[in-house]
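User: I'm curious whether this sequence folds into something compact or stays loose and floppy. Could you predict its structure so I can see for myself?
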Amino acid sequence: MLLALIFGGVGLWLAWRRPAWGALAAFALLPAYQLRFSVFGLPSTVLEAVVLAVIVGAHLHWLQRRSPWPVLGKGLWWAAGLWLLVGLGGVGVAADHYQALGLYRAYIAEPVLLMPVWLAVAQDARARKLFVHLASAQLILLAVVAIGQRLGWLVSLAPWNAEHPARMTSLFPFPNAAALYTAPLAAFIAGAWLAFRGRIARWESNLWIISTFSGIVVCSLAVSRGALLGLGIAAVVAGAWSARRWLWWGVCALAVVALLIVPTTRQQLTNIITTKDTSADVRTVLWQGTWHMLRARPLQGAGLGAFPAVYNRYRLPKHVELLQFPHNLFLNVWSELGLAGLLFALGALFWLSKRLFRLLQRHEAWAVGALLAWIVLGVHGLVDVPFFKNDLAVLTVALATLTAFVPIPDNKIPPA
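Assistant: Here's the prediction. I'll summarize afterward.
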């Protein structure tokens, strides 16, 4: 509670001074969702206190006309309103409305309300660069903690530290949480470095390189194959912005051949494809059971936070492990928010993709990092949950805003 008051007060003041500063403060404290407390029986987190404080501070800033109100456009405001309504539909379907309202607040309402504040970052070149610096510091810190856990210098969490190979969690409660957070940030920073190399200070260039590899280290020590696959595909795509692209792609091809030649990795890949691998088998059975559930409940899904209880009635007999989500982005959205949520998500992704590729055609520098980050999110999202989590919901909206609003004329890269 005390930490919430302190950090919330700082976030309020920063956002009142400059909304971009408030958004960056919220971003720096995203892992603080793990610090929980309650007010008059209402559960909350330090992150939520900061986000609400930043929203209030930013709106006080704009009401006092310290700077112009953000211009999102009527279309996006209508889309935001529709997303809020779709989320309320998920609350209505859920059996536990009280729990669903809490999830609605953290996953949908607060990230949407924070979007205009993120726009202040998107439209400020210096704030964008500060975002990359903060992300770099986070990735390096998370990598140091994960390495310390792997070497036995810091406490690692059970049961993942007893698996073979051992999986590190860094500052997160489970390994995939660390990978889901770090992988898109590492890709974003790598893209920024590719676009701005030669135009940034040497220390910035070194920082961005080190932090990119730090993100890869966290994902590797978390043994998150979905994140590593996403980063690998992003690395191949990144070759398009390399001065020696054919050499880049040749190295990527050699790496793939090496993975296929080494007996251990070849056997692991075979087990995954044939679902002999435990994780692959669990997900395959989970997806089959989820499909059975959605065929029976195509319009309403399960409702926000209600997947475990509803899925239990449709799961296959051989699936004995009940999970919180279907571990697939599209099945997750469909299950939590019904068919309306799925259609909205598909429409939003289509619009964002069109916007992104137009910016790439105009050689907008920041679009490179955005493309790589969304590749990682998309690939990893096929096998995990990259949105329905306190920190990831805010991060996804932040990346979407930074992707859609990047028309900064003096930061264009020359044609590849």
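Summary: The two ends are 51 Å apart (CA to CA). The mean pLDDT is 90.
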